[in-house]
């Protein structure tokens, strides 16, 4: 019997008998139905279309908050509310780079988040270094009054392992270059594509806010700059108009389905609502909010009230320093012991291939049950040593909240990450719904089965 | 014996015996050696790096002419010269589009070649039509004072068959929209990618120069605009600063290897030197000039003087109306009867899969010989009914010059065509050298074997 036929029958039974179907049936049926449901996809489609780019602190940030609150209400969550998140406001007006001298031509760049501007045109000679470590090892005399260019390329990897290796150039490059007397920093984009899109992204502000401008070149432009440097001295003109402008209050948007057995025990899932300003934030991270909200919605749609409370958080301003996540952890400090598990979707919309957990008691029966339910989706269980539940879960994990992680195939994620090219067409609807089905399974297990009798 | 070993031996024999090797040996050896030679790739690499974008009429146009003349001389052609080409100058300063109203956001556009500017900001409501034919069929009342948006998408095709179907929107859309009283034209980019690059390209000026601004949206932005229109009335703001500015004189750059048997009989090959201003013109058409020059160079490198004269033409300003090609045909009108065959490479750098000819006498033995020499390169012969020898050959073909056509796989060509993303990394060096080998074979055949005894 097809599940499309089975499902209404199950609901009818549930409604007429006023009884929940057997957990085994419910989990499988939820999973199969979630594969077909369109509410999640509609969420990311409409968010990226109606709001579009929504960088923290822009006018679109406020529109995104209002949009998401309205959509959560429309979807029928029991409670929907917002919580304030305040942060310094950074804005981008324009950014231009040109090669001067014998081979004049434009280069495609984008300022790094948190950069200062050039205050008009800045000219300088380029000094190329292999990577961040090479910059650290470079004598100040070599880079003083120069434009430093960090050239290393991020490698592709299913789990994004190349990101951690490469992103230090973005995080710490400007501060290091500034300390050595450089007048600006350019990096090769932290991205794995070969298209003419520069990848933006935040600099680390933990050791101080750099006072020299910093920008990324697209990969083809970084190739071009390398070739030009091989031909002799290269001088560039930079005209970058960006900077810190004030303080802004945005909001986390939170939606809840109240549990009917252990309502005080909360499963926290979500994604981040903000995007960078260049694209429409489909993969990063409209998808994450939409996948998790779309999974929670399966319970509303099928009138299957969960035993525990399911809370979906659309975190504010992840990009500029997990600002919404920190505010959430602070605001909910006194109920974190009732956050029984947490996880975020923030790695695009590629198919999920593995589950990891970090549970104090990952009992065999529960893991066997999860494994069996996820296997038809092509997902394997990798163990109870999850190191991350997503960036916005870090502040919760630090307070001891247990985690699970649905690992997506991120091979292509860094082709689009933080670029103008992060748009809806990059989401494969089939992989997207496989995500929703997997999240639905995990919500069911944690809400209705995990340690329910203890 | 490897050809790398064989080849110097052959040259040694040729030089010591003052005799040309047997044609069979020479053709095969030339082909195999051409597969490895780096001069062609160095040409396109250096042109796109040192000159970069080189739109007709820009300062880079003059640099491209000087660069190409110097490189031809460096390669050792017998004669290198330039011939003037004069045309109206069109320039691009900036182009911006924003959605107004409830869903404000930027859209990525690029002005079409020959467009007028908006003279500041232009606002208007968008009226969407399915394609150019639908615009023709639309009553004026529907589009009067509106911004017309032609939405149809170009399809992918190995031979670029989708281009002809779609490009009429670019060629004639603005004039048609203007005639119906529209205030601007937007089209979906004539391109097959789904990246945030708008594809520029010339409007047809044959029926008059449109006086309303015209621009193309990237494919993801066209998708977005379609989705927005589905939600209700859409108003846009356009700010396009482009236009005609004067007259400019550029040059065709011509290089020749003088034949030693029939020096007055000329084989004309080449590509166009100009590119659009957005990318660095690697595929369109640095590759074409480099492939044909790289093939001719095989004769110089190996001191194998051809029987007929080989002439490589780097045509000026193909993009804005075959201007250099027309000037060439006019300047050489009195020697076209001595142009025994002509062909251009202007479809990127994908592998060649077929040969076509249009010869008055495509004798069986010659075709069999060509087929045998091209077969190891994966190239088949498709017949003597070639309809094109490349855009810049049209004025010659109209005067009766015979043609050959080495057909490239253009499946991906329109992913990059006329965008900022047309950069060197899009050239596959292996396919590029397969092109050089095929052109080398054809040059050898036409210079040394074809109708040599008649």
TrEMBL record, chains A, B:
Every Peptidase M28 domain range: 252-436
Main location: endoplasmic reticulum
Pfam families associated with the record: Peptidase_M28
Biological processes, Gene Ontology terms: proteolysis
Keywords: Carboxypeptidase, Endoplasmic reticulum, Glycoprotein, Golgi apparatus, Hydrolase, Lysosome, Metal-binding, Metalloprotease, Protease, Secreted, Signal, Zinc, Zymogen
Name of the protein in question: Carboxypeptidase Q
Cleaved signal peptide residues: 1-19
Gene Ontology MF annotations: carboxypeptidase activity; metal ion binding; metallodipeptidase activity
Quaternary structure note: Homodimer. The monomeric form is inactive while the homodimer is active.
A GO term from the CC aspect: extracellular region
Originating species: Simiduia aestuariiviva
Cellular compartment(s): Endoplasmic reticulum; Golgi apparatus; Lysosome; Secreted
Family matches, as PROSITE patterns: PROKAR_LIPOPROTEIN
Gene3D superfamilies: 3.50.30.30, Zn peptidases
């Amino acid at each position: 019997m097809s599940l499309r036929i089975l499902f209404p029958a199950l609901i009818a039974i549930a409604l007429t008998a006023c009884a929940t179907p057997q957990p085994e049936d419910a989990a499988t049926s939820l999973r199969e139905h979630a594969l077909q449901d369109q509410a999640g996809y509609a969420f990311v489609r409409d968010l990226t279309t109606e709001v579009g780019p929504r960088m923290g602190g822009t006018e679109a940030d406020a529109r995104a908050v209002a949009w998401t609150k309205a959509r959560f209400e429309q979807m029928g969550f029991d409670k929907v509310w917002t919580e304030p998140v305040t942060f310094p406001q950074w804005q981008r007006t324009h950014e231009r780079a040109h090669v001067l001298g014998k081979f004049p031509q434009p280069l495609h760049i984008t300022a790094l988040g948190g950069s200062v501007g050039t205050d008009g045109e800045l000219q300088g000679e380029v000094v190329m270094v292999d990577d961040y470590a090479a910059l650290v090892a470079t004598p100040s005399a070599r880079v003083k009054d120069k434009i430093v260019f960090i050239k290393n390329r991020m490698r592709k990897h299913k789990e994004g392992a190349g990101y951690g290796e490469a992103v230090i150039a973005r995080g710490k490059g400007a501060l290091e270059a500034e300390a050595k007397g450089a007048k600006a920093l350019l990096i090769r984009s932290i991205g794995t594509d070969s298209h003419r899109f520069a990848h933006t992204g935040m600099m680390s502000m933990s050791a101080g806010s750099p006072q020299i401008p910093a920008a990324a070149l697209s990969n083809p432009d970084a190739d071009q700059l390398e070739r030009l440097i091989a031909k002799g001295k290269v001088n560039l003109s930079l005209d970058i108009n960006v900077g810190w402008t004030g303080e802004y209050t945005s909001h986390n948007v939170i939606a809840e389905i109240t549990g009917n057995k252990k309502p005080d025990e909360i499963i926290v899932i979500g994604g981040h609502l903000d995007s960078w300003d260049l694209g429409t934030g489909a993969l990063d991270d409209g998808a994450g909010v939409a996948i998790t909200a779309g999974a929670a919605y399966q319970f509303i749609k099928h009138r299957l009230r969960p035993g525990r409370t399911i809370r979906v958080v659309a975190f504010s301003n992840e990009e500029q320093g997990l600002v919404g996540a920190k505010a959430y952890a602070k605001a909910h400090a006194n109920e974190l012991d009732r956050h029984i598990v947490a996880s975020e979707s923030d790695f695009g919309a590629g198919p999920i291939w593995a589950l990891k957990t970090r549970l104090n008691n990952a009992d065999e029966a529960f893991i066997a049950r999860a494994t069996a339910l996820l296997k038809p989706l092509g997902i394997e269980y990798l163990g109870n040593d999850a190191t991350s539940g997503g960036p916005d879960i870090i502040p919760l994990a630090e307070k001891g909240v247990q985690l699970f992680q649905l690992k997506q195939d991120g091979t292509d994620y860094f082709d689009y990450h933080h670029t103008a090219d992060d748009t809806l067409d990059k989401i494969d609807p089939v992989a997207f719904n496989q995500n929703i089905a997997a999240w639905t399974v995990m919500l069911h297990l944690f809400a209705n089965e995990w340690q329910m009798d203890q």
